[in-house]
Amino acid sequence: MQQLTHAALERPVKSPTVDRLLDAPLDDLLAEFGVAVRVLDCDRAFTGGAAVREDGSLLFVKPAGRPAVEWELMARALLGKALRVPLPELPEAYQLTEM
Question: Which stretch of DSSP H or E encloses residue 55?
């Protein structure tokens, strides 16, 4: 497994496999990688976002009132992108944009 450094923990973190990112309970994955989640009222077109904080930890933005299945999809995609784990393409209606 590829090793990444999780700056917030100041220790190497093993990159998860594609299967783990797709199959493990989302709450377990978010806890394992120290991801904070904030729920915000957002524009209907916004399906989620991620930011890397100054300490290297991850913050995910979960839009309020969106379907749970959509959040599962987007949170896993965001985590895969942040950890550099190549996941299958998102459905056509969704995309990840790096800023």
Answer: none
What are the tens digits of pLDDT across the range 60-85? 999 999 999 999 999 999 999 999 99
CA distance 36 to 23: 20
CA–CA dist 3, 64 (Å, integer): 34
Which stretches does DSSP call E strand in 21-75? 36-40, 49-52, 58-63
The β-bridge partners of 2 are none
Q: How wide is the angle at C-alpha 73 spanned by C-alphas 71 and 74, nearest 5°?
A: 65
On whether the pTM is more than 0.90, the answer is no
Largest CA distance in the chain: 38
Phi, psi for 15 (deg, rounded to 5): -70, 130
Euclidean distance between CA atoms 26 and 71, whole angstroms: 10
Contacts with 58 (C-beta within 8 Å, 6 or more apart), sequence order: 33, 34, 35, 36, 50, 51, 52, 79, 82
